[in-house]
Design a protein that fits this description.
Blueprint lengths: L2 H13 L40 H13 L3 H14 L4 E5 L5 E5 L1 H11 L3 H14 L3 H13 L1 H4 L7 E4 L11 E18 L2 E3 L3 E5 L2 E5 L3 E10 L5 E8 L4 E7 L8 E9 L5 E8 L5 E6 L2 E8 L1 E8 L3 E8 L4 E7 L7 E4 L4 E4 L3 E9 L6 E4 L2 E4 L4 E9 L3 E10 L5 E10 L12 E4 L12 H18 L3 E2 L2 H10 L9 H11 L3 E12 L2 E12 L5 E9 L7 H12 L4 E2 L2 E4 L2 E4 L12 E6 L2 E11 L3 E5 L9 E5 L1
Parallel strand pairs: 7-30, 19-25, 26-27, 26-28
Antiparallel strand pairs: 1-2, 3-4, 4-5, 4-8, 4-9, 6-7, 9-10, 11-12, 11-23, 12-15, 13-14, 13-16, 16-17, 18-20, 20-23, 21-22, 21-24, 24-25, 28-29, 29-30, 31-37, 32-33, 33-36, 34-35, 34-37, 35-36
Helix pairs in contact: 2-3, 3-4, 4-5, 4-6, 5-6, 8-11, 9-10
Length: 638
């Protein structure tokens, strides 16, 4: 490679950065001598890298350097000139020949300049233009800041967001119920949390055949989310652009635990009859009915019911059902003397695909049992004979639980239960989308060192791996292949990532760029990321993150949440298969996006993959091959 060619390449790379280094004159024909200067410092004001030739990207770069120095009039003048020469906000814009710069947002940046000058109506117009041309979280952030300053918006602001449940559910013993509600505000809702977790709604706009996803503040948000929690209450919180926050506690009517029974005493009465006395209780939904002594009794939702009956034989039956539909049926022997025992209502060794398990057991003794423990956690009780029921969370693999009981005489007993949780085949990690998570590009970006970008990349990688939603290519493998490619020596570009993807045999690529801007008293971080199909190079989905202060969530956390919100684990058997086309109904309320990857299973074995081509009331998917396998079919998001 000649020195001249190398110089041309390096110059084009420098042009894509908005960091201001060097000594430059504001003249359109002055050469900048590159020197080191602190971002936002006086030495950088009005400076560009390389030669200032009066092109649109020269004015854009210099306008940013003025803005970083809080020189708003100079910044406005240069950004206005950039717009007059090239007025389209885009993530990638070609300059001369095949050279390009990334993150050219003159309308967005001039809107920010106008906001800082107090010209809010003009700022709003430019920021809205930027969002129409190429949506970005930074533009949306400043648009909301601008709205807060406008009289027309201030006059509308009366109160914090309000909630309205679209449907009220009855008690159920099934998890995975849909939460449907509407959140409204006088002005614009900025953030929503569900049980402490950020809820992300995203508008997807197609720009140059690239789907771009950002969260836009709205006066009305519709939430349709599947809740798998067993908590009795779900807390919803919402905040508007003025910072007014409200919360609502929603009853989560899920009860998977059977009613419990405590036999207080079994004794002969004065007539020589065997009398059984006790209490039936249900901690959550309440008792619907009980059957004791052969008599069926409607209890109508009481949490406790005291009973007494005469046992006609040497055994007695007790049945009960709670409002949620959980049933209990016991057949026990009449015994006046009973050694302390634990009678599990299941095997000692169990295998399940569920993420929780119900421990149901009968505890018996001749003496009162005041408490019992499960893996060291104590529960109070009262009675010589108890039926207990608890929901236990399960981790993937082998889970061990020890149930221990001791009566008032000091006698004790314990039981070890081993539960192996296996993941359903269609949800197993080796069936998930294979993704190569590439390091954030740094050389081409303003104000961010490669060390800083590497730290952010590692944090993002660790967060995604911990969720186990995707099959991630190992970092060491990826690093080795990147080192082997000469094209990756200067920066991790899409082309570099695509060539590496062919070597590591991934299905998709996560590629991102980090931009750090610094000014007097302020610093901001922005990351633009996209998921690229490694086979054909098309962008499946793109999204970004932006923050200005330490109180906001990190850009990594924002990206992590958005990534997983855009790739939810959905599954359905409600499908109509016609050769290589499927019509499916996921019933989740989630808006699947075009080219979203899918996988078809037949009797738990993957038989074909495909992409979403259309969604209205139902989803249409085109498969890459016909599924020839027989058996029950299931479609899942890849």
């Amino acid at each position: 490679m000649t020195i001249k060619l190398l110089t041309a390449i390096l110059t084009s790379i420098f042009l894509i950065s908005c960091q201001s280094n060097g000594d430059a004159n504001s003249s359109a024909n002055t050469t900048t001598n590159t020197v080191t200067c602190a971002k936002g410092s006086a030495q950088c004001c009005g400076k560009t890298r390389g030669t200032f030739l009066g092109d649109w990207f020269d004015y854009y770069e210099r306008g940013l350097s003025y803005a970083d120095c809080l020189m708003w009039q100079e910044a406005y003048k240069d950004l206005s000139t950039a717009i007059s020469k090239r007025g389209q906000d885009k993530r990638r814009v070609y300059t001369l020949g095949m050279h390009f710069i990334t993150n050219y947002f003159p309308h967005r940046e001039i809107g920010i300049v106008l906001y800082n000058q107090g010209k809010y109506q003009q700022a709003k117009q430019h920021l809205e233009t930027s969002i129409v041309q190429f949506p970005s979280t930074k533009a949306e952030t400043y648009l909301n800041k601008t709205r807060v300053k406008l009289e027309s918006v201030i006059d509308k602001e009366k109160s914090a967001p309000k909630f309205a449940l679209l449907s009220r559910s009855n008690w159920s013993n099934q998890k995975g119920r849909s939460l449907e509600l509407t959140i409204t505000d006088d002005t614009f809702i900025d953030k929503v949390w569900i049980d402490g977790e950020l809820f992300v709604w995203q508008d997807v706009t197609e720009v140059d055949k690239t789907p771009v996803s950002i969260q836009r503040a709205k006066a009305l948000i519709q939430v349709n989310k599947v809740i798998t929690s067993s908590k009795t209450e779900i807390i919803i919180a919402a905040e508007d652009i003025f910072g007014n926050k409200s919360t609502k506690t929603i009853e989560n009517k899920v009860d998977v635990i059977q009613p419990e029974i405590s036999i207080q005493r079994i004794e002969e009465n004065e007539f020589g009859e065997v009398e059984v006395v006790g209490i039936i209780s249900d901690r959550q939904s309440g008792i619907a009915w009980v059957n004791v002594g052969g008599e069926n009794i409607n209890v109508s939702g009481q949490n406790t019911y005291e009973f007494s009956f005469v046992a006609e034989t040497d055994v007695f039956d007790i049945s009960a059902q709670d409002i949620a539909g959980n049933q209990l049926s016991l057949n026990r022997a009449v015994k006046f003397s009973q050694p302390i025992t634990i009678d599990l209502q299941s095997e000692d060794v169990i295998s399940t695909q569920e993420n929780s398990w119900i421990l149901s057991s009968w505890l018996e003794s001749s003496h009162d049992i005041g408490s019992y423990t499960i893996n060291g956690k104590s529960f109070t009780s009262s009675g010589a004979r108890l039926h207990i029921s608890h929901e236990l969370d399960l981790a993937e693999g082998v889970n061990t639980f020890e149930l221990s009981v001791e009566d008032e005489s000091g006698q004790s007993a314990s039981k070890i239960i081993q539960i192996t949780r296996t993941v359903p085949h269609h949800l197993a990690s080796n069936e998930r989308l294979v993704m190569a998570l590439f390091p954030f590009a740094c050389d081409q970006n303003t104000g961010v060192s490669c060390d800083s970008a590497q730290i952010s990349y590692q944090q993002m990688d660790e967060s995604v791996r911990a969720r186990k939603r995707f099959q991630l290519v190992e970092r060491a493998t990826l690093s080795s292949q990147l080192d082997s490619l000469k094209i990756c020596e200067l920066m991790v570009t899409d082309k570099c990532a695509w060539q590496t993807a062919q070597l590591v045999r991934t299905q998709s690529m996560f590629v991102g760029e980090m931009i750090v801007r610094k000014s007097a008293g302020n610093a901001s971080e922005e990351v633009y990321a996209r998921i690229i199909d490694a086979v054909n190079g098309s962008v499946l989905i793109s999204f970004d993150a932006y923050r200005e202060n330490q109180s906001q969530e990190t850009v990594n956390k924002q990206l992590y949440v958005k990534l997983h919100e855009r790739f939810p684990l959905l599954s359905t058997e409600n499908i109509l298969l016609d050769d290589d086309e499927i019509t499916a109904d996921f019933g989740s309320g989630f808006q699947l996006w075009k080219n979203m990857p899918m996988k078809l299973f037949s009797d738990e074995k993957a038989c074909a993959q495909g992409l979403v081509v259309e969604q209205d009331s139902k989803t249409k998917i085109e498969l890459n091959e016909r599924c020839k396998a027989k058996g029950k079919k299931r479609l899942v998001t890849l």
